[in-house]
Amino acid sequence: MKNKHRLSSIGRGLARGMILALGMNSLNALAVENAPVRGGTLIYLEQQAHTNLYPPAGGFYPNGGILNQITDKLTYQNPKTLAIEPWIAESWTSNSDKTQYTFKLRPGVTFSDGKPLDAAAVAKNFDTFGLGNKQLHLPVSEVINNYDHSEVIDPLTVKFYFKKSSPGFLQGTSTIGSGLVSPVTLAQNFDALGDARHIIGSGPFVVSGETLGREVDLRARDDYRWGPKNLVQQGRPNLDGIKFIITPEDSVRIGALLAGQADFIRQVQAYDEKQTEGQHFIIYAAPTRGVNDGISFRPDNPLVADVRVRQALLHATDAGQIVDTLFSLHYPRATSVIAAPAAGYINLADKLKYDPQLAGQLLDQAGWKPGANGIRQKDGRSLVLSVYESPPQPQNKEVLQLVSQQWSKVGARLNILAGDAGSKTADSLDPLKTPANVVEVGRADPDVIKSQFYPTNRDALLQKGGSSSKVQNFSDDKLNTLLVAISAEVDGQKRLQLAGEAQKYLLDEAYVIPIFEEPQVFAGAPYLHGVSFEAVGRPAFYGAWLDKH
Fold first, then answer.
1. Cα separations (Å) of 377 from 168, 237, 397, 535?
2. Higher local confidence (pLDDT), 3 or 82
3. CB of 115 within 8 A of CB of 204?
4. Which residues pair with 331 in a beta bridge?
5. β-sheet bridge partners, residue 94
6. Alpha-carbon dihedral sign for residues 461, 394, 212, 538
7. Which pLDDT tens digit goes with each residue over 132-184?
8. Strand, coil or helix: what is 391?
9. In the chain, what is the straight-line distance between the N-terminal and C-terminal CA atoms, in Å?
10. Cβ pair 96, 241 in contact under 8 A
11. Which residues of 198-213 are buried (b: 16+ CB within 10 A; e: fewer)?
12. Is 277 within 8 Å of 328 (Cβ atoms)?
């Protein structure tokens, strides 16, 4: 099937729901070439539209999936070893207390508008990511802590200064949130960066067109010569372009892939994996190495202010049943706050045991008595919690429905609110309206725990002085001290120990109920080769190529 024909027919195919069957005899007969094939446009079906392409917003996977193709980073984190390797920075040094970092840059790197990616541009990027820009509403990056300022030493040397130790900064320069963009891009306000055409990067692909909310087109950059030096792929990308098409329905994405009308898709549900692999398509399950998919509480809400209530709901949650019912082997059951492959992980499975009898005892001790309708009561209140569904998380509605069934056995109810509700943003900042919320974030560094729970980062617990003005009382100084210590400890082993202490404390206080380790699950055609993934699961198509088919 010629690429031109595939591009013109995709709209018709999606509209009629796709033909799910493809003659596999012809696919089985295809021979894989030894050398990559140059040319072709990759058709990528994405579940959700991107929201904003300001690099620190790249944690949202539809955003990161685009940013990873159009931006470079100072450093490259090897996804197999997690070692930090050269990329735009050829080398770097730091002082002993990690308050100063100096980077030497590769010569000859340019943004797609022809402007140099030099020390001044790098300084502008990290001054913006580290300090934000209130006038342009550009927020501070969650992967940069204690930032003070930059200094341009010479055109290819830049130095960064921190108010106190920042041992996670080097790894932070390799993340999707530190993608380098032109100073012209950083001069625009946050809302303008929702348009992909406004993002000028130095990456192997360039945005060539966009239909907002529906499609983004990328083309290869012919003069690209500065990919990570340790990669096999060097020079120009093999592909001529990438077409991102927003396709919300799971069945339509799978159908398009199996019918040969798409080459790569994101968010393959576990129940579709067997069918996909059975037809010789490839499942990619990339680990995210961060805070596990689960539920956290907002203790400013009186319903969950008592640690015994939170502990009861933790022990009323049967993560094993959820994983066995809804997911595949690519979704390991959580055994701690962070995933087993994450830096600083410790096994705390003993603290996560399903024990409905203990849950009932804890609720009794907390004064919650069984009611006539099966829901526990105390001081005229019912133990009914609300949570918003999180569409980016796999089968999140079904996960929450199972949790609700499990909690009902001990006399609690979980109301599940629609993830696309117009009131979600405001309600999610009000602990009285949403005493629980869905959590998950990927990053291959212990700082990921701080990113999720610290009040001036994602503020999952909603603490006083954090992201919400609705919080009246709740703050946990012990937790916050631990989180800051993780971000500032320069001794590697001590830093991992602090990460372990934070995980224990979060579970002892039952602030979070980890359920499963979330991968990013993709599927690709058998004629697609060379797809890789960065350390927390976003695809990279720099070395990808399409075999003749």
1. 46, 62, 26, 46
2. 82
3. no
4. none
5. 101
6. positive
7. 999 999 999 999 999 999 999 999 999 999 999 999 999 999 999 999 999 99
8. coil
9. 6
10. no
11. bbbbbbbbbbeebeee
12. no
